[in-house]
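Is S-adenosylmethionine placement plausible here? Inputs below.
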Amino acid sequence: MQKNAVQRIAEPIIGAYDEKSLPAEAVPDYLEENYWWAYLHPKSMRFFEQQWVINSILWGNYARLRDATLDEMGSPISGRTLQVACVYGNLTPKLARRHRADARLDVVDVAPIQLENLSRKLNGDGNRVFLDRQDASSLDFNDASFDQVLMFFLLHELPRETRICAATEALRVLKPGGKLILVDYHQPIWQHPHRYLMPLVFKTLEPFALDLWGTELTHWIKADKPFGSIKKKIYFGGLYQKVVIEK
Ligand SMILES: C[S@@+](CC[C@H](N)C(=O)[O-])C[C@H]1O[C@@H](n2cnc3c(N)ncnc32)[C@H](O)[C@@H]1O
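Reply from A.M.:
I modeled the complex. Tokens:
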């Protein structure tokens, strides 16, 4: 288990989140040191929550990647779905709306401020959504609990060891035959200007992201059995990828 892993200390809350029930400490060091400006400060959160900002960060590809993710998850969605880590924008409210009345969506994040923010965004769409503070690298769910697990732009933000734990945990909590959906950065084709620009951006803002270039996402998952299937699609000249693993 990773050094700063957080254990779940409160029961999941449906569509709402109560910070008072949680300890202030235990946000992982890498998050505090490298991403405080993006995820932990209330002012930056308000800034990044604007649709045009997240769309610009993804070079105009937010809606395309969001919709590709949602389409992969189906409509309507039944059974249990886990989203590992909150994301800016309207992906999660849209995902929640696709859930059937008897289905359930769990969203976990290690940062209380992000869960509070999601709770606000869900508003009336939160009936079947359970929010919980957990560390992706040591999930507090039983093996084979979920029909689908989603990680949207999480893996590139994690240091290597944490990334391996988080990717492996995502597979562990997935039912046999279930889908693990990973959307993240990818190494663009040679002719793509971003192939030369993005390493500079990553060097300044996303210190672990280049790990994903030239390495398949499946590399980070420690699995004791071969996967049922792997499907990969790249977007925007290869800067982004969606990988769907059937367990
Ligand atoms: C999914 S990632 C990046 C999302 C992307 N930039 C966006 O907003 O669309 C950001 C989230 O990951 C969360 N996070 C980072 N490390 C985590 C961990 N070890 N466990 C759970 N959540 C984590 C952060 O708190 C933040 O809410």
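Short version: The mean pLDDT is 89.
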